[in-house]
Amino acid sequence: MIHKYKWNVIVIGGGLAGLTTALHLASNNFSVCLVERSEYPKHKVCGEYVSNEVLPYLKSLRIDPFTVGAKQISKFKITDTNGDPITATLPLGGFGISRYTFDSLLFEALKNKAEIIFDTVEKIIFEENQFRVTTQNKSVLLADFVVGAFGKRSNIDTFLKRKFMQESSPWLGVKAHYDYDFPDDTVALHNFNGGYCGLSKTETGTVNACYLATFKSFKKYGDIEAFQKQELSKNPFLDKFFSGAKPLFERPLTISQISFQEKKPVENHIFMVGDSAGLIHPLCGNGMAMAIKSAQFFSEMLIQLFQKGEFDRTAMERQYASQWHNEFDERIKTGKFIQRILLNPYLAKAGFAMVKTFPSLVPKLIQKTHGNPTE
């Protein structure tokens, strides 16, 4: 059994939220250990569009996604299941970048500032005011604080007996990159029966196609190729895309059991960031920005309290949970509202008709699922 010395913070999970938290704290003289199960670089199921609201914060961490070719995005296009389009200008704009590159960019900035262990966490025990984290390779890691950044659904959630794990989720996510002529400055959302598909350019010039579908709509077709050809392609825009686009992955990446049920930002004294704390519907295109923002205000809170010498754990947990809810509850609520409309054919038809009559509604809805830029 390998015993490591005690860190100020152990971050479990090396996605955007985990990497950003670790980088922020390590850059401010915290001893940090990041535990991630697989090495970089790697692809992940993700929409790969990020709101510009996080750019000032990334700049403060000396992270510039445009140095690796991120695409500036300013336009939004959405179609109903029949392919009827609505276009709008994004209020803040955003950028397109693959998780393969974005995660690697953060990892390269972090690797000489923190301990990074590639392993799978099996247990997290809090006792005598400290954490003991046990990994699959039998390492035992100690820390004052643990940050949970283990994503949408994890074996750790099961170990912690988190409530949302007790119920199955009907959602399936599919993602792949394609060679296709698509505008650099646009993110598109195309609806189909039982789900929606996002399209946007990545830093390499390839198009990321990522869609969310109910398992009920998917299972009658049996496989991804049949589902795309027979269901997604009922939308003329998606038919044109999947007919003409050249797949660049050997096979699409998939993820199942995506849960949009409520989660707690703090559980078992673990501070949850990113999707571990809560998940906005992907149709809002803002999950990556929310992950980074949650890392920001957790890190800022911890740094401020360390500077003051205040370590009231209960007060810290209340403060973080309150800030998380204040920042994200309205966004998530709006996302659920939009999804309910889009997945109901009658409501979707009425909704599209209303937006065509009052086009200013689109930017207003986008603003309700996005935040403001903060330093």
TrEMBL record:
It comes from the Bacteria. Keywords: Membrane, Transmembrane, Transmembrane helix. Signal peptide: none annotated. SUPFAM superfamilies: FAD/NAD(P)-binding domain. The chain crosses the membrane at residues 7-26. This is FAD-dependent oxidoreductase. The keyword Transmembrane helix applies. It comes from Aequorivita aquimaris. InterPro entries: FAD-dep_OxRdtase (IPR006076), FAD/NAD-bd_sf (IPR036188), Geranylgeranyl_reductase (IPR050407). Residues 9-41 form the FAD dependent oxidoreductase domain.
